[in-house]
Amino acid sequence: MKILWLYAHPEPRSLNGYLRTRGIAEATALGHEVIRSDLHAMGWNPVVSAADGTGGTERFLVGDAGHTAFRAGRLPPDVTAEQEKLSAADALVVQFPLWWYGPPAILKGWFDRVLVKGFGYGTGSRYGAGALAGKRALTVVTAGARASSMAPRGIHGSIDQILWPLLHGTYFYTGMAALPPLLVGSADRATEADADAAVAALRARLRGLETEEPIPFRAESSGDYDDELRLRPGVAPGASGLEAHLSE
After folding, report:
1. What domains does the chain contain, in order, with CATH numbers?
2. Where do the H-state alpha helices sit in 101-245?
3. Count of CB atoms within 10 A of residue 179's CB?
4. Electron transport as a keyword (predicted)?
5. Which of 99, 103, 136, 213 could form a disulfide with 91 if both were Cys (CB 3.0 to 4.6 A apart)?
6. Residues in Cβ contact with 99 at an 8 Å cutoff, skipping those fewer than 6 apart
7. What's the Cα-to-Cα distance from 70 to each of 65, 83, 110, 111, rounded to whole Å?
């Protein structure tokens, strides 16, 4: 497989940096080709602006302007380069520290600028049938909190729910198969043994990258949703939380 390793951490000497180095080495040893995007090292600009669209003086409607610029081949070169990397990849590994229950701003800005309408999604082509269908996405996330506190009954909430906007609203929305995330807890207090255990867990996930079952989100085209995109009454009756959007 060809993997785009999308990495967002400002400190290369961090546990994240160690995992990235070892993870890329493991993926290469498994025979995968790895394309790299180290957002901090690249000096990635995460801010969407009119320069990403029309660049003119008319009102800047972000979605429409990005779509128009994409179709006309007028997106900025840094955005186009990342789109080319993602287009060439069979799988996406997204690695970051969890800050305030989400990805760092620099990574959020990569999704904002790269996954424009026409490239990342289109009308009627979402949630399992997006433009990036056929690709697989693995999230590698570190947290200062203990992993046990991000379990289903943990005080912080389940990591799957914390990352729902990324797993469901970004990966699955654009058609990618979202794999269960790999959480490495207590990152700031990790010992050498902890780091080695995290590498072993990452190695195992990379070995299963091609075959692991993705999170079973319900596709928009599954028939489970009505014309208002609400679950039909007979689907997951009585359920109203996020889990209702997982197939049984």
Report:
1. 2-215 (3.40.50.360), 218-248 (no CATH)
2. 105-114, 159-162, 164-166, 192-207
3. 22
4. no
5. 136
6. none
7. 8, 10, 16, 15
Residue partners of 106: CB distance under 8 A and separation at least 6: 8, 39, 40, 44, 46
In the chain, the amino acid numbered 171 is Y
For residue 91, give the nearest of 159, 10, 35 by alpha carbon.
35
SS3 content of the chain, % helix, strand, coil (to 5): 40, 15, 45
pTM above threshold 0.85? yes
* Percent of the chain's residues with pLDDT above 70: 98
| pLDDT tens digits, 129-142 | 988 999 999 999 99
Instruction: Give the side-chain half-sphere CA count within 13 A for 58.
Output: 6
Q: Could you tell me the two tokens for 141?
A: 């996330």
- Please give the Cα distance from 247 to 244 (Å, whole number): 8
The one-character DSSP state at 173 is T
Rounded CA Rg of the chain: 19
